[in-house]
Amino acid sequence: MTQIKRSLAIFAAIVTINLTGQNNKALITAFSQSYDYEAIAKYDAAITSFNAVYSATSYEINLRLGWLNYLSGKHKDAVSFYQKAIALMPAATEPKWAIINPLTKLENWNEIEKTYLAILKLDAKNSTANYNLGYIYYVRKDYGSAKKYFDVSLNLNPFGYNAMLMSGWTNYFLGNKNEAVILFNKTLLYSPNDKSALEGLSLIK
After folding, report:
1. Rounded distance between C-alpha atoms, residue 19 and residue 32, angstroms
2. How far is 118 from 86, CA to CA, in rounded Å?
3. Separation between Cα atoms, residue 109 and residue 132, nearest integer Å
4. Are 81 and 54 in contact (CB under 8 A)?
5. In terms of C-beta density within 10 A (0-12 exposed, 13-18 middle, 19 or more buried), how is residue 34 classed?
6. CATH number for the segment(s) 124-205
7. Per-residue pLDDT for 19 more than 60?
8. CA atoms within 13 A on the CB side of 49
9. Closest CA to 184 of 156, 161, 205
10. Which pLDDT belongs to residue 185?
11. Continuous H helices in the chain
């Protein structure tokens, strides 16, 4: 009886291995087909490649479908797939960066703000996330919040054009004229005839 149990256990293990191999082969085929279709801009066909292998618990498939739906202009569907990927891998910044693309097309700035904040919880010193979040607050004329994030970006990139210029304007609107002058002048070192920096300096007397 023991021998029979051992034989059954071995058989079950072999079947599991074979099924895993078959599943993986099907996944590889689906991904490969999706890349081929994407290369010729047949995005709907690329999406269809995953019909037979889709799993709601697959991070990779949901991430891929998020991208393909974004390319096909199905931005709400793209957001949905990216949200699934985020839920499956909450410690990953990859899907959070990706979801910003369709959210931008949908002009969902509140969700974009939340996404950048989520990225910064995982990567507090990310220069791009700090700058972009600062810019969102700048557009809203929330200059105090904008400065908080622009300052981080500027500290990481002291001679970065965007960080210098936007920090200059933020300080200008906050009434920090000395800081604004310094930043506008530094911007001119990077871009000697920069119209925005020159305009800022012209407004400060």
Report:
1. 20
2. 11
3. 11
4. no
5. buried
6. 1.25.40.10
7. no
8. 25
9. 161
10. 98
11. 2-39, 43-48, 59-71, 75-88, 94-105, 109-122, 127-139, 143-156, 161-173, 177-190, 195-203
- pLDDT at residue number 23: 78
Q: Which residue bears the tokens 């690329």?
A: 46
Structure tokens at 76: 């709400």
Distance CA 98, CA 153 (A): 21
Which two three-digit tokens encode residue 29?
Answer: 């085929």
- Torsion angle of C-alpha atoms 67, 59, 130, 191, degrees rounded to 10: -40
> Could you tell me if residue 41 is left (phi over 0), alpha (psi between -120 and 50 degrees) or otherwise beta?
left
pLDDT of residue 134: 98
pLDDT tens, residue by residue, 20-51: 555 789 999 999 999 999 999 999 999 999 99
How far is Cα 71 from Cα 166, in angstroms, rounded to an integer? 31
Residue 184 burial (CB < 10 Å; 0-12/13-18/19+)?
A: buried
Rounded CA separation 41/89 (Å): 28
Written as six digits, the tokens of 112 are 């974009």
d(CA 30, CA 10): 30
